[in-house]
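One record is given unchanged without comment:
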Amino acid sequence: MKRTEAREEAFKLLYSLQIITDKNIEDQTRIFLENSGIKDDDAIKYIKDIIYGTNSENEKIESIISENIKADWDIKRISKIDLALLKLGIFEIIYSKIPYKVVINEVVELAKKYGDDTSKSFVNGVLGSVVKKNNIEG
């Protein structure tokens, strides 16, 4: 499984974790992976890293999102899809050290596929702002 496909699966799980009532991350991740049919060990590790990493750094990631949206906006106004995409992108850019150009490009493609008409611009703008404010290179 390619990284792009694994990233899309990680996004789907991140999104579903925002809307389910059972917040047991380990159980939900196990159930998701069992039902997805993913057999690639590298993809499974990547997905788990994203899910557990965004969960453990959730407060910091949400703070970063809040710092990079318009002053009159509240994070609660962001759609669950866009929020999952932003969490995925920010985690990869800041914590996984994956080149930000790759991350932004792929997350924007997911926004085009799953978000509404404004998602791609919104997600691109917020992630671009994160890169600039944090002086991230590469």
Observations:
- The two ends are 25 Å apart (CA to CA).
- Residues 3-133 form a domain with the N-utilizing Substance Protein B Homolog; Chain A fold (CATH 1.10.940.10).
- The chain has one domain: 3-133.
